[in-house]
Please model this.
Amino acid sequence: MTQLDFFKSLNFDDGLEVTKQVLERFPLQYGTTLGLDGHPQIRPLEFKFEDEGILYFDTVTFYQSYKELLNHPFLQICVCDQETMTYLRLGGKVNFTTDKDIINRCFVQSPVLTSQFGQQRDKVIAYYLTDVWVEFNSFLPELPKRNYRLKNKYDD
Model:
């Protein structure tokens, strides 16, 4: 399936499904945090899974990004496809969890995480997003532009 066919196959009436499918299709995303120095920081990250409308990610407690997210718990993520000139941006509030089942599921979803930190599971912390907003945009006329709010049970 081409990238264009993939995007055309999405059900744009379901923002959660669009978001999840794009994050799964493009496993390397770029996330921005507010650095401890007050400047934006961008780094690669990896979406792990969605469960009951909740988007899960993880980090490592000795990473600078973890300290940044503790200080300013907001994240923006961008996924781009140059071939179709299409991108998905999303953002939300970061909420950390030490739930072992969630962390174990992060390891199951990621061979990279397992290879890098399989022996240091106690250093990995999962997080989920609340107050999630999503922007889907393409410069191709056959693809829509959409904005979504993805509410979940942890939203205020």
Notes: The beta strands are 29-34, 40-45, 49-51, 54-60, 74-81, 86-97, 124-138, 146-150. The mean pLDDT is 94.
